[in-house]
Specification:
This protein has 286 residues and is an alpha/beta fold. It is built from ten helices and twelve strands. The protein is 42% helix and 22% strand.
Amino acid sequence: MTSYKDILVHLDQTDRCAARLAIAAGLASRFGAHLAGTYVIDVPPVDFFNAAALPLDAEGVERIRDQMRSDAMAAAGPVEAAFRALLQREGLAGEWRLAEGNHAATIALHARYADFVVLGQTNRYDDSSGWGVRSTIETAVMGSGRPVLVIPFAGDFPVQSERILVAWNATREAARAVNDALPLLREAKAVTVLAINPRRGITAHGDVPAADIALHLARHGVRAEAAHTRAGDIADGEALLSYAADISANLIVAGAYGHSRARELVFGGVTRTLLTEMTGPVFLSH
């Protein structure tokens, strides 16, 4: 990955949309990238109303769906205006995308044509942003083939990540995350590659945990420091967040682990902890 040329940002009506857009716009400006602001209208299918056993005929269902679509279109108007105003104000190349369909699947589809997608973390104190946001993040991470930058639901964060913490466990997902994050890593003032509870040996972390990947990064112009720690009695995800706080990291880069089970996506422990407990932006790749 030499640079980022296409960035997708998810836009909606939440209070954090402006903060998410500002970060995405800042990154687009730094890398000279095209910025696509994507807003999704997800009107329930007819089967949804039938399953709810509502006393409505076909025409009644269509009237409700038409009204829901009309309301959603109207709500998108101010978001579009703010996005277009930002493009003009910052002199950015970009486009507004108004898409209809399943929210999570639509974002994942559009993300395939970008270098990465910027999404917002689920606000655990707001029931209205619960499952829909979680599903969108999970589907984008596991189904788009592109990395995802997740912005916390609270806090202010700099556009440029001066200190980045890379979670390294010598897996395919971690290697993919490091490669996808290279443009960000090159610009950072300090990069720490951390192995938690490392396994030594040729099939694991090597004789010196995280040293091999730090050397690889050095060849790409990244000044990276190899580190390792023992988590002790706490989970790896909590140890990672604790270490990030200790070194004042303002971005965590990590491989995303999970699998599809029936009709749901299930994240592994570290990924789940990052997405629920993050205190700063997290760059995830699968």
